[in-house]
């Protein structure tokens, strides 16, 4: 992954999702932690970690905020936003605003394509975008500054050269998710903010404040959204329970199934990747954001997890993010 800077008890829902794919992250020894108090001891020395919440079944068994703004104030979830955009994509398809994942930009939103766009971008599919397999040169990392300082973020991203075949390898690029966000906006005739609040905010009872917009007014598709840790935990339970929350089907179960199929793999972490969600070897479904923001669900073990961290410090796979994965795959998983 490249670097980018810029509630009450729940009703039990028991479903199971079969996850494909493998991760390069090794399992940590589960004997290190068997109780919530062991988790508290483990995070005491993790100076970047702000808050962690773990829900098992109906019960929130860990709710700690040793640093940062706490459990009830919003935090920047960074690229966890990409996973939220993935859920909004599934809703747009379910409502008929988008025919299917095979629909193309040219069919759905030709108005966003600049006259000097890279040849072939009109044929990019929704699936190409939501799996980060558009083939376009990324706007993250060294290209990020030039991209967000451009006068048209969508056009800038659609002018990047093709460096891989669409539908081929994963190219981590927030520009790709931003294109998808613009397509969703055109297709639904609602801003991403409206969609996020309508589809997730109100049904789940979580706060989703306004966030960054590009020069054309499109909300940032893939970065800078904010939620409280409690709100993030509700998203995690939604993923855990096949799109259901408090007895209601919020996101279609078949979209959750498709989202948790391995379509590609991150060249950085080795984690498999579905429709906006990373997939671990043990069965965790993970949204990951810069600095160590995590929304994670383990359907088989009935676990949901939310983690916030210092949004200004890097969290590389070989560093702090690796520590967070060890925490998930070891002590947290042992709570099941």
From TrEMBL:
PANTHER family (alphabetical): BETA-LACTAMASE-RELATED, BETA-LACTAMASE-RELATED DOMAIN-CONTAINING PROTEIN
Q: Gene3D superfamilies, from UniProt?
A: DD-peptidase/beta-lactamase superfamily
Beta-lactamase-related domain residues are: 51-314
Annotated signal peptide: 1-33
Q: What species is this protein from?
A: Thalassospira tepidiphila
Alphabetical list of InterPro entries matching this protein: Beta-lactam-related (IPR001466), Beta-lactam/transpept-like (IPR012338), Diverse_Enzym_Activities (IPR050789)
- Supply the name of the protein: CubicO group peptidase (Beta-lactamase class C family)
The alphabetical list of record keywords is: Signal
């Amino acid at each position: 992954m490249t670097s980018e800077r810029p509630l009450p008890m729940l009703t039990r829902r028991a479903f199971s999702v079969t996850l494909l794919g493998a991760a390069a992250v090794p399992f940590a020894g589960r004997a290190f932690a068997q109780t919530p108090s062991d988790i508290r001891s483990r995070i005491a020395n993790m100076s970047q970690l702000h808050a962690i919440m773990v829900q098992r079944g109906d019960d929130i068994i860990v709710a700690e905020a040793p640093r940062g703004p706490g459990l009830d104030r919003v935090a920047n979830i960074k690229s966890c936003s990409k996973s939220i955009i993935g859920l909004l994509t599934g809703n747009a398809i379910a409502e008929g605003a988008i025919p299917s994942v095979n629909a193309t930009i040219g069919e759905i939103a030709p108005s966003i394509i600049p006259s000097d766009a890279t040849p072939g971008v009109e044929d990019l599919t929704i699936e190409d975008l939501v799996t980060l397999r558009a083939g376009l040169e990324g706007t993250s990392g060294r290209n990020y500054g030039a991209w967000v300082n451009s006068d048209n973020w969508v056009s800038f991203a659609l002018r990047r050269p093709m460096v891989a075949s669409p539908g081929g390898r994963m190219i981590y690029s927030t520009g790709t998710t931003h294109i998808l966000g613009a397509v969703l906006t055109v297709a639904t005739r609602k801003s991403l903010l409206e969609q996020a609040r309508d589809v997730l905010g109100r049904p789940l009872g979580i706060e989703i404040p306004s966030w960054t917009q590009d020069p054309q007014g499109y909300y940032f598709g893939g970065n800078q959204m904010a939620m409280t840790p409690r709100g993030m935990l509700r998203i995690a339970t939604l993923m855990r329970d096949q799109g259901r929350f408090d007895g209601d089907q919020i996101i279609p179960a078949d979209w959750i199934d498709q989202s948790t199929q391995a379509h590609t793999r991150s060249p950085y972490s080795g984690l498999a990747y579905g429709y906006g969600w990373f997939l671990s070897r043990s069965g965790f479904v993970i949204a990951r954001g810069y600095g160590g923001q995590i929304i994670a669900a383990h359907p088989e073990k009935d676990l949901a997890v939310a983690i916030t961290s210092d949004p200004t410090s890097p969290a590389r796979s070989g560093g702090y993010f690796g520590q967070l994965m060890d925490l998930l795959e070891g002590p947290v998983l042992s709570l099941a």
